[in-house]
Amino acid sequence: MTLATGNALDPGAAVLQRQRSRESSARTYARSFPIVPVRAEGMTVEGADGRQYLDCLSGAGTLALGHNHPVVLEAIRRTLDSGAPLHLLDLASAEKDEFTSALFENLPRGFADRARVHFCGPAGTDAVEAALKLTQTATGRRGVLAFTGAYHGMTAGALAVTGNVGVKAPLPSGGEVTRLPYPYAYRCPFGVGGESGADLSATYVERLLDDPAGGVLPPAAMIVEAVQGEGGVVPAPDAWLREMRRITAERHIPLVVDEVQTGAGRTGAMWAVEHSGVVPDVMVLSKAIGGSLPLAVVVYHEDYDGWQPGAHTGTFRGNTLAMAAGAATLRHIAAEGLAERAALVGARMSARLEALRAALPVIGDVRGRGLMIGVELVDPSGEPDRLGAHPADPLLAGRVRAACLRRGLIVELGGRHDAVLRLLPPLTITDEQAESVLDRLADAITEAAQGRTGERP
Length: 457
Known about the structure:
Blueprint: H1 13-22, H2 29-32, E1 37-41, E2 44-47, E3 52-55, H3 58-61, H4 70-82, H5 94-106, E4 115-119, H6 124-139, E5 144-147, H7 156-160, H8 165-168, E6 177-180, H9 194-210, E7 221-224, E8 227-228, E9 234-235, H10 238-250, E10 255-258, E11 282-285, E12 297-301, H11 320-335, H12 338-359, E13 363-369, E14 372-377, H13 394-406, E15 409-410, E16 412-414, E17 420-423, H14 431-449
Parallel strand pairs: 3-15, 5-6, 5-7, 7-10, 10-11
Antiparallel strand pairs: 1-2, 2-3, 4-12, 8-9, 11-12, 13-14, 14-17, 16-17
Helix pairs in contact: 4-11, 5-11, 9-10, 12-14, 13-14
């Protein structure tokens, strides 16, 4: 069935038309997925036209338990029925106390015992801003170390430490940032790849910081993602991340780990940083911790708690429903072993995608961790680089995304050239759904690679 967007066959057509005429040009997902969801459960989304889709976007990683999970709905209904205030700024409440307890129960070992939590505005970017202000206040320094390929948000400070040049170019500078090379084996910034590339990255960072003519003043923090999400699903090698911890600890530089997208079981551990055994000084959390509702916090070692009252505020940092839903989500993930499940299912999906890569040369690389998987699409007829990687093919990736949508699969793009298919299914994905996702994706890639346009999305 063709997805109609401009006639009476589709009752959502008028909604889409009004969206196009009234919303800003900055809208993103609505351009890629011209559908009007009306119902959703688990991994399945139903559009106004009656079509159903398997959702591998999951609110950009927000929906750890999928849409409308019973545990989340029950927590929301219980809170509503209790008559609890829904908005409390940063006042104490039973719901906040329960969320904080659930969070601290699940923080990395060695971190929770001496941690403090600050509730931020309800978006990850605000928690990043809070982390930067926190470390700048604690150290008395200004600069920040950040990495190529990073994505930390769209507000001024968070955008300054983000790597994407396209979104930064029209704006004035957001702060003093030193950009460091993130290890990306497939497109290694040093042209060597593998462990050697990661070793060079660590060596470069250490020597730059110790070079009296390197131009880098002692920084307030280093901020890093254990797996770069928007940057193309690029996992940091565990040994490299341990080196970043050593380098920062020896120089008294706070290490901030951004777990906005990787947290709450997504990568096969409750927090992605746990794969390496690293204990950071600061963790930035949002998305899945709110159980599908807006919530963001920064958690940090108590030694950095030098803020004055009101140093970082936000009207909507007291979202009672989000705290109730978030506590239920965190405890359900832990009780049901969903992080371990994500590791198992993610490994199976990645293995099948690797087999598909052998058959389809347009798949340049398959990578990720747990249920955070990236498939980089390339032009196999293009000139390969010194490591054998062919040029990224964003046009092909766009065709694959559209072909997926026609097959009832929602998959978004990311990476340096928007040429990486990003799979972020809920942690509750069944084995049957995983196979269906891969079947539809394989068909879509095959069709797009053969140059068939198929039906219009």
